[in-house]
Amino acid sequence: MSIETFLLEIENRKKREIESLAKDLAEKKSKLQTEMNIAVKEIQEKFAIESKIKSEREYARIIEAGKLQAKKIIFDAINENMQSAFNVIKQEIENYTKSPQYKKALETMINSSKKKLGQSIVVHCRDEDKSSLKDLGVTVGKSIKTLGGIVAENKEGTKELDLTFEELLRTHEDKIKGFLSERM
Asked: What is the pTM of this model?
């Protein structure tokens, strides 16, 4: 073998090795590109799912906050209507205390108090009602600030019966609110 043939063979072997290495490199590059594409796709899918879950949670939170706000608005409106209704009731009571029927209501309150506390009672009332109560023959005590009605107590002061309109409203407030709720 001549040197030229030998060199030619070495060169051909180098070319084949370089081609083989280039082919291996191209295959590895292709394989890495495919793996990278798969990894990128998986990451995109993962983040798409996570973002969808987060957006659904945020959507649900916003909807629930909206429902809660709506309930609060309705509750506030109902309370405002209730308060307005109670103000109207108090105004009507104030008008009632100026009517002739009010004196009969005071007489009924006195009779009821005597039944529960005994015949000898002391009655506390508004200044405007003192003359009417004296006409009914009861002992009138101190003046009280009220829309109307009386506070009666036995002579010993050990028992008391509050028949003021405010107390009657307070004790029947649930019934009144129920009645008003049905009408709203």
From this structure: 0.57
